[in-house]
What does this fold into?
Amino acid sequence: QVQLVESGGGLVQAGGSLRLSCIATSGFTYWMYWVRQAPGKGLEWVSRIGRDGEAAMYQDFVKGRFTISRDNAKNTLVLQMNSLRPEDSGRYYCATNSNGVGRGQGTQVTVSS
It folds into this structure.
């Protein structure tokens, strides 16, 4: 089973940027996702990407602000987050499907207004 380790979260002011990374211990699955969980809310998928970087998709609430990418040679998945908003706050995970299966410990993102 793939083990995933997320990093890169932190505290940032609204309008700022963060770059999240996810490293897989044994390689990624074909589709990889970023999902997030805000306090008191359920998991929601944010973005996904295919094995060769194709078919990147974003939820409307991050479209135009977030960019997903992957480097299979380095077993690294990245989420570049720009123009952050307070509602983007939450714990972010990389996962093997949109329901968060296989996610790691996550990395906390806090956006202050």
User: Anything to note?
Assistant: The longest strand covers residues 18-24. The chain has a mean pLDDT of 94. DSSP finds no helices and ten strands in the chain.
